[in-house]
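User: I'm preparing a small set of examples for a lab meeting where we compare how different chains pack in three dimensions. I only have the primary sequence for this one, and I'd like the structure in token form so I can line it up with the others. Please keep the answer compact; I'll paste it straight into my notes.
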Amino acid sequence: DNVIYIDPHAPDRVRGIDGMQALMERFRSRFDHKLEPEGTVDMHHNVFRLRWRLQRDSGEILSCGLMVGDLTDAGIIERIVQFVDAPNAA
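Assistant: Understood. Below is the structure token output for the 90-residue chain.
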């Protein structure tokens, strides 16, 4: 409930599950795409990272980037920071 999500497409930090859900719904309403992981989640010291891409069913890649986050000692996500690369920069 207290997660913080930082994204270059959001003007402010997004707080909590409801805020993240609202941001995702707004974004999905503008694009028909799928979020696809590139590889697997890499973790150490309660920090994770995952490369991703937004891809349409046609195969067109809209963007790609890196997600980095912090976990509590109990394994709960407390912060996610999103980095977005230029389209087709994969």
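A couple of notes for your slides: Residues 16-30 form the longest helix (15 residues). The radius of gyration is 14 Å.

User: Perfect, thanks.
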